[in-house]
Amino acid sequence: MMPNRSTGFTPFFLAYGAKAVLPSDLDHGAPRVKAFDQDRATEAQQDAVDLLKKACETTIVGSAHYQQTLRRYYERKIRGRILKVDDLVL
User: Fold this and answer.
1) Cβ count near 18 (within 10 Å)
2) Secondary element (H or E) of residue 69
3) pLDDT (tens digit, 9 = 90+) per residue, 47-72?
C-alpha cells in the first residue's frame, strides 16, 4: 500500500499506528517479524502510540498545506466572467 500524497502515510498506519504485516511476511520470516520480542511489546506499543500522535499532527499540517496548494492552483486557473443583462434570469 502506497502512502497518501497529501499525508505521507498509508491509511493503515493512520488507523492502527503501525505498518501492515502481510501474511507472506509471517510465512517467510521477514526481519520485522523475527525482531519481535514479547517482553518489549508493551514498551513498543507505547512508542507506537507516541509515534501515531506525532504522525496525526504531521498529517493535519500536511493536509492543510496540500489543500492550500490545490486551492491556489485552481484559483489561478479561474477566469472571471462578466454577466450580460441578457444572461440574467429574473
Assistant:
1) 13
2) helix 41-77
3) 877 887 887 888 888 888 889 999 99
- Dihedral angle, C-alpha 81, 83, 87, 90, nearest 10 °: 130
Please indicate, yes or no, if residue 74 is contained in any of the structural domains: yes
In a domain, 52, yes or no: yes
Copy the grid coordinates of residue 61. Answer: 499540517
Euclidean distance between CA atoms 37 and 52, whole angstroms: 20
Show the domain range for 33.
11-78
Asked if residues 17 and 54 have their Cβ atoms less than 8 Å apart, the reply is no
Sorted by sequence, the CB contacts under 8 Å of residue 49 that are 6+ apart come out as 17
Model-wide pTM > 0.85: no
Q: How many domains does the chain have?
A: 1
